[in-house]
Amino acid sequence: MKLLKIALPILLLIVAAFASKLLINSSQKIEAKTKESYTPVVRVLNAQNQSYQLYLHSQGSVRPQRESELIAEVTGKIRSLAPQFAVGGFFKQGEVLLSLEQRDYNLQVQRAEAVMTQAKQRYLLSETNSEQALFDWQQLGKKGQANPLLLKKPQLIEAKAKLSASKVDLALARLNLERTEIRAPYDGYLKTKQADLGLYLRAGSSIGRFYNLDKVEIRLPLHQQQLAFLDHKPHQALSKPIAVELKQQQQRWQGLIQRSEQIIDPQTRMNYLVAEVDNTRSDAQPQLTPGQFVQARIQGKQLKDVFVLPRSALHAQNQLWIIDAQQRLHLRSVDVARLENNVVIISKGLKNGEQVCLSKLEVALENMRVTLANKQP
Question: Model pTM?
């Protein structure tokens, strides 16, 4: 009995030690097996170099390319207005918008005509007197050059000058008479009006603003960084027009960027390009209207020998997970040419045909084995 009391604890210790060893060995095997069997399934894409056309996006409001302020050139009371003399009224080039009282200007024309007639008679008389004086000189047998005073040349010159001045006065009087009718400078629409029947206008008074819709412009703001993706040198005049597509809802218009304003807005820090659109009326599409807001897609550079990948493939610090022939992961840094909404354009760091991991992995380790969900050819 005494021997059993001594042997039993020793036996229990031996059994416990053996059991502990079995448990430790078992857990190590399970852990090793678990680590070895973890191979996440991932989607891959074979990188293929290609050319990629860049587009820049902007927006702006439509404005007329040609807009003028209509100014009265003579003074007078408004006598009549065209029926369509109202905001939005359309006029053909040369059509009369409004007329001023013409009686004073008709009288000025008549007076100028009378003065010119008198000046013409004096000139003819002076010319006759000068010719007669020369004839008398020759009849007297005088030799040598006759004195201009004797030939009445100064009187002839004065009469000729007065005749020329009277012609100018008549032309000016007729011009002022024409200016009593204010006409459309080109085909267009009345934007604003500041005149009405019976109003007395002074020379230099504005009667409204007038614009043409055959061509319109849109100022398109771009960030400084965006200019680098245009096919021209920043802060220089455009060497050739740049294609631009404008849209509003389902409507589309094609235009050309013809110039840069060559100035940075001090408040927004934006550069402005100016797009021109042929806006002549047609059945194919509606005309753009001043003030209309449109979205713009500007054609940029064409990048060559780049790799276009889904944006989700890119990780922090411009890195990609590359999968080698043994289906193991390798983290690689790449050069990003441009990030767009859904894609990333890689310029350096990839080789043609390499497999890029597209899946987001919760745990990703260098040299970790993966299983391909979609085998690329």
Answer: 0.71
